[in-house]
């Protein structure tokens, strides 16, 4: 299967900069996939996104979107991709309505209904000049213009920045629907729980390098064949051998005395056994990713 977005050793050194902003980033995003791009301030997320969109040129490496080369075919790419910049720069004197009319001349709408629904869902302010809008209301217009023409690929730099929690939910629904319709979504974020909730895969960038990639096993969590991992602390001795004897369970002891337990299939026997023990703390794999990501941030400072 051809990737919707593919990066191969993508690098960027800004003119006069001592250090590269992007150092050989390679990744591939499948059609319909939602990919979350996380990393500390200055890690290179916006640089990567602006390079993909052809606003700046890579120093080395290659990338393609829908099979189109990001350098040679950047005009065609801009027509087919929905893009949201990190700092939404819209025409300040236009109203939302005028802006959408103007942009739809550049990127024709497949359906006027889609735009109408977006405006409704986000309760967007369409009749005031952009310069009079609050940050969140400007962000809504930025999101609406990215999705309005129902593009096959969406590249969004911190899309939920400035949105209130209700509007964040609207955005998550929108991304899920777009992905369900086959669109690929690549977006940067500082919010691990949001990317864990909406993305199928998470990439972590630091100092211009892609240092980790994780699948998010949301759908698999309920499946019979999925492997789930727990870390369990006990008040008192850990029932290592009893757990070891359960079907489909692998267990190992950590230095702290906690047990790492991996289960394939039925959780009931493990939960029943744990119910008879004095469990102090139970951590699931997702939270495990959380601490790993936090560590990646902390090493930075
Ligand atoms: N136009 C530019 N000229 C020179 N250096 C730049 C330019 N834009 C970004 N940089 C540098 O490139 C590096 C990566 O910046 P970038 O904006 O891509 O980070 P980011 O991951 O998007 O950070 P944030 O989370 O703060 O948005 C930083 O060291 C930054 O100072
Ligand atoms: Mg940025």
What is this structure's SSE topology?
Blueprint: E1 5-12, E2 22-29, E3 34-38, H1 45-52, E4 60-65, E5 68-69, H2 74-80, E6 81-84, H3 96-106, H4 112-121, H5 135-147, E7 153-156, H6 165-180, E8 184-189, H7 192-198, E9 201-206, E10 209-215, E11 227-234, H8 240-244, E12 249-253, E13 259-264, H9 268-275, E14 279-284, H10 285-300
Parallel strand pairs: 3-8, 3-9, 6-7, 7-8
Antiparallel strand pairs: 1-2, 1-4, 4-5, 9-10, 11-13, 11-14, 12-13
The structure holds adenosine-5'-triphosphate and magnesium ion.
Protein name: ABC transporter ATP-binding protein
Pfam families: ABC_tran
Family: Belongs to the ABC transporter superfamily.
Q: In a nutshell, what does this entry contain?
A:
Keywords: ATP-binding, Nucleotide-binding, Transport. Residues 5-232 form the ABC transporter domain. The protein is an alpha/beta fold and 301 residues long.
Strands ordered across the widest β-sheet: 6-7-8-3-9-10
| Average pLDDT rating | 90
Report the sheet-strand fraction. 25-35%
**Helix segment tally:** 10
Query: Total number of β-strand segments?
Result: 14
> Which structural class best describes the helix and strand composition?
alpha/beta
What is the domain total for the residues? 2
Ligands, ions, cofactors: adenosine-5'-triphosphate, magnesium ion
Determine Rg (CA atoms, Å). Answer: 22 Å
Order of helices and strands, N to C? Answer: EEEHEEHEHHHEHEHEEEHEEHEH
Task: Write out the CATH superfamily name of the largest domain.
Answer: P-loop containing nucleotide triphosphate hydrolases
* CATH class descriptor name of the largest domain: Alpha Beta
Largest sheet: 6 strands, mixed
CATH architecture of the largest domain: 3-Layer(aba) Sandwich
- The helix fraction, in percent, is 25-40%
Shape: globular
Unreliable residue stretches? 219-223
InterPro entries: AAA+_ATPase (IPR003593), ABC_transporter-like_ATP-bd (IPR003439), ABC_transporter-like_CS (IPR017871), ABC_transporter_ATP-binding (IPR050763), P-loop_NTPase (IPR027417)
Domain ABC transporter: 5-232
Protein name: ABC transporter ATP-binding protein
Pfam family, one: ABC_tran
């Amino acid at each position: 299967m051809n990737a919707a977005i593919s990066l191969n050793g993508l690098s960027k050194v800004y003119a006069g900069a001592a250090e590269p902003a992007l150092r050989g980033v390679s990744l591939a995003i499948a059609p319909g996939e939602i990919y979350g791009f996380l990393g500390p301030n200055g890690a290179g997320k916006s640089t990567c996104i602006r390079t993909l969109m052809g606003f700046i040129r890579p120093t080395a490496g290659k990338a393609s979107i829908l099979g189109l080369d990001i350098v040679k075919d950047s005009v065609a790419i801009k027509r087919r991709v929905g893009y949201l910049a990190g700092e939404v720069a819209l025409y300040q004197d236009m109203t939302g309505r005028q802006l959408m009319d103007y942009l739809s001349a550049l990127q024709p709408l497949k359906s006027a209904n889609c735009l109408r629904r977006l405006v409704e869902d986000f309760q967007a302010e369409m009749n005031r000049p952009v310069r009079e809008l609050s940050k969140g209301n400007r962000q809504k217009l930025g999101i609406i213009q990215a999705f309005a023409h129902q593009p096959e690929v969406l590249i969004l730099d911190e899309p939920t920045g400035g949105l209130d929690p209700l509007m964040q939910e609207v955005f998550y629904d929108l991304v899920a629907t777009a992905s369900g319709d086959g669109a690929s979504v690549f977006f940067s974020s500082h919010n691990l729980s949001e990317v864990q909730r909406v993305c199928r895969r998470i990439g972590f960038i630091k100092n211009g390098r892609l240092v980790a990639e994780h699948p998010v096993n949301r759908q698999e969590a309920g499946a019979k064949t999925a492997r789930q991992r727990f870390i369990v602390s006990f008040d008192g001795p850990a029932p290592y051998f009893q757990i070891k004897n359960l079907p489909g369970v692998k267990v190992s002891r950590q230095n702290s005395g906690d047990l790492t337990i991996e289960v394939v299939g039925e959780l009931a026997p493990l939960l029943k056994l744990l119910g008879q023990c004095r469990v102090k703390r139970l951590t699931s794999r997702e939270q495990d990713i959380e601490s790993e990501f936090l560590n990646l941030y902390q090493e930075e400072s």
